[in-house]
Write a structure and sequence with these properties.
The protein is an alpha+beta fold and 342 residues long. The protein has 14 helices and eight strands. It has two domains: 79 residues, no CATH class; 167 residues, Sec63 N-terminal domain-like fold, CATH 1.10.3380.
Length: 342
Amino acid sequence: LRAKGIYGREIPLATVTADQQFTPVKWFRKILRERLSPVAAVDDRRKPDSSHANHRGYRPLLQMQVSRAELEEHAHAAIPAATGGGGIDEMVTRGHTISARLDFSAVQVSAVVDSHGQALEAPPEREAVPLVCRGCDQLERDRTVQITASPAYAWRRLRLVEEDGTPTRRGVVFSFFQAGEGLAVAAALEDETYPIDDLVFDLANIRGGPRFAGEDAPMGGRLGILCQRVYDRADYPDYLEMGTPVHYGSGASEVIREVIANPGMRYRLTTDALRSGDIERALMEWRSLLRHIVHAPDLGWARWRELKAAARHFVETTTSPALLDFPPLLAAQQRRGGIAFS
């Protein structure tokens, strides 16, 4: 664009006919047809035996003619969206072709502002070695060795240790459990708004598995959502999947709560996907986790002690489904060597 002293872009719009009508070029004709008749724009197929169809079964684009005023009106309205924000600065005619010169100076782009206050688009960059590393005798090796995530990095990211390696309160609770179970317990205890009376039942979700969720999100529930937020939906093999323990499954806490309140309702909670064996397994895993908390070391934290007290209460007041009274063995079964066959 010589008048403005900037670069632009020139694109063809139409060809001029003998009667001073304008036939839009192919790409612009398609835009006009969509603007003028959206239904006709998608109705481009006819049967192969149609007199208007070519050998592929498509009819050719209709020859469209518009006036100069219509051409300019539709061009000013459609060109910005079709070209990524370019505006028509002027329209020129070369021979039998009319073209539009586009100005992109109004399009906003990302830029880096330098120390002089000038905006630079995609400036060249260089990588500088940190000052603390420039005098290191292991610099050459560090530039070539492959960097992998270490356990220490995971501990720091999960805030299990301080910068000097001292375990945090979350790290101490984590050490009381296996795999990622302690991470879920620590996250719940850190949330002061999380009632212990609810948490003691939500612990069943930690080993619940996928069967209890049904059509709901398997990582849902208050405990699962809290873990995802606290641990940034991180993945650590055998510890966390999307921020939750690997065997986490929502829905188990509601079933366990109902079974504890109404033991006779156990068999009414079964479905085609959830069987009585699943409920018994969840109850056993829940009581196992509660016993683990009861026998875990003490910690100078009021909420941890409240959780231990609640866990002890349910361990003492509930029974395991594995404690069944089996019938006595038959005399032949009690005989050494098994049953004698005659």
